[in-house]
TrEMBL record:
Protein name per Swiss-Prot or TrEMBL: FAS1 domain-containing protein
SUPFAM superfamilies referenced in this protein's UniProt entry, alphabetically: FAS1 domain
Pro residues composition bias: residue spans: 337-347
Residues annotated as domain FAS1: 26-174, 187-327
Compartments, as annotated in UniProt: Cell membrane
Length: 422
């Protein structure tokens, strides 16, 4: 009986350990290339073009890396970041080619599909790479649409993890008219149509109807712009209040939803603090506080706390995120003042009762202090949603972390128990 239980526990413990380690085996192209300083520029641009996470998600691939010298030559043509993304994605083959396989290709030649081809950006058969074994042990590479020229050659293998990822050096970038074709720069992208297509149509339409705010947004795209656009439900509910604002107030409210710097999600997660907006003008601060709790980034004005719910575009110099609430600046909405009980100090308000035990019980003190602020803002904005949402979210996060923690404890306990029985 005991033996059986012990066996079960041991099996469970082993299973849990295997589950825990399985996820750690995935490759990380950034980390692998960090060991090869000659490829730091290539590595940097895999990150900037957001190709690195796409590479990490795939298995059975070959990355044809080019060294810093060859990369600088490529960069000297000043391709836009989107064009560069196309060019570099042509260097990611969707098949595994280690050094050995490269030198022993069946019939001496093969066509490999690439990530460029897989994105659907490449027209027709463009986006395939021809690999051919040549005389004297050379291996030639050429983009299929390049008139049969094999202008790049295999240099050496940098890292091989069969059959997940092979990273090889080739002598120079693969020329390809299709990949090098200019793609629209962010400044030419239509801000409002990006927003409209992804659940922020009401905000986009409102922005289009305000020429002042619209031109402020457009003027900032080239130098860096991050927009936080409220989702349709939130902005629709806010429209009556918006219509009540003066023309200048309307423009400021819209401009309050963007900042004149590019902020990637990683930057938002690591830089907590005050953020100026397009509406900031000397004494009129129009700022808000960026604060993250785990993976969740929140934007706090004195009146409302909004959460970032999605990314519509994140390509230096332009980022557009969706948020779940309209940001209300205190310069336009002095909401908390007239209400009789604005308790900024985290007093244990009775209204908190249903949700606070869970929060207080498991969450860090800092979050508990935040809770009253959330509750307080709820009436000013959308009645009960806000409080409910923040409570749900907090618990969800706790449960997730808690579950992992419990697993680890369980394995340790199971192992200890097993040994004690031996
Ligand atoms: C290859 O990738 C699979 C799936 O991600 C993983 O389970 C396996 O451990 C990897 N192999 C190596 C040698 O990293
Ligand atoms: C990959 O490695 C880089 C550098 O070591 C690190 O910053 C990044 O977070 C890693 N990515 C993942 C998904 O682990
Ligand atoms: C190799 O060449 C032979 C004869 O031309 C052909 O039948 C075969 O399909 C080729 N194999 C590959 C992998 O292309
Ligand atoms: C690759 O290119 C070479 C040289 O142009 C050509 O002879 C060969 O047929 C091509 N291979 C394939 C599989 O298309
Ligand atoms: C953006 O697209 C909308 C319609 O989708 C159009 O009305 C507007 O003029 C466009 N704006 C720019 C700057 O091209
Ligand atoms: C609009 O302003 C008037 C006058 O200040 C006020 O009575 C009314 O409640 C406001 N409406 C909204 C929806 O805020």
């Amino acid at each position: 009986m005991q033996r059986l239980r012990l066996a079960n526990l041991a099996a469970l413990a082993v299973t849990l350990l295997l589950l825990a380690t399985a996820t750690t085996h995935a490759h990380n192209i950034t980390r692998i290339l960090e060991k090869h300083p000659d490829f730091s520029t290539f590595n940097k641009y895999l990150t900037l073009t957001h190709l690195a996470p796409e590479i990490n998600q795939r298995t059975t691939i070959t990355v044809c890396a080019i060294d810093n010298g060859a990369m600088n030559e490529l960069l000297s043509k000043h391709p836009s970041i989107n064009t560069l993304k196309n060019i570099l994605s042509l260097h990611v083959l969707l098949d595994y080619f280690g050094a050995k396989k490269l030198h022993q290709i069946t019939n001496g030649t093969a066509l490999a599909a690439t990530m460029f081809q897989a994105t659907g950006t490449a027209p027709g058969s463009m986006g395939f790479v021809n690999i051919t074994d040549l005389r004297g042990g050379k291996v030639g590479f050429g983009a299929e649409n390049n008139g049969g020229a094999l202008s790049a050659f295999f240099v050496k293998s940098l890292e091989e993890i069969p059959y997940n990822i092979s990273i090889i050096q080739i002598s120079k970038p693969l020329p390809s008219a299709a990949a090098e074709a200019p793609t629209p720069a962010p400044s030419q992208q239509n801000l409002t149509s990006i927003m409209s297509r992804h659940g922020c149509k009401v905000f986009a339409d409102t922005l289009s109807a305000s020429p002042d705010a619209m031109s402020t947004f457009s003027d900032n795209v080239d130098g860096g712009l991050t927009v936080f656009c409220p989702m349709d439900d939130a902005f629709k509910a806010f429209l009556p209040k918006y219509k009540n604002l003066t023309a200048a107030g309307k423009a400021s409210l819209l401009e309050y939803h963007a900042t004149p710097v590019y902020e990637s999600m990683a930057m938002l997660k690591s830089n907590n603090g005050l953020m100026n907006t397009l509406a900031t003008d000397g004494a009129s601060k129009f700022d808000f506080t960026v604060q993250n709790d785990g993976d969740q980034v929140t934007l706090k004005t004195k009146i409302v706390t909004a959460k970032i719910t999605g990314t519509l575009i994140d390509e230096d110099p332009l980022a557009i995120y969706t948020i779940d609430k309209v940001l209300l600046p205190m310069e336009l909405f002095k909401a908390p003042a007239p209400s009789p009980a604005p308790a900024p100090a985290p007093e244990p308000a009775t209204a908190d009762a249903p949700s606070s035990p869970k929060k207080g019980g498991k969450k860090k003190k800092q979050k508990a202090a935040d809770a009253p602020a959330d509750e307080e803002t709820a009436p000013a904005d959308s009645p009960s949603d806000a409080a409910d949402e923040s409570a749900d979210d907090g618990n969800g996060a706790v449960r997730f972390n808690g579950a992992r923690y419990v697993n680890v404890i369980f394995v340790v306990v199971a192992l200890c128990f097993g040994f004690s029985l031996l």
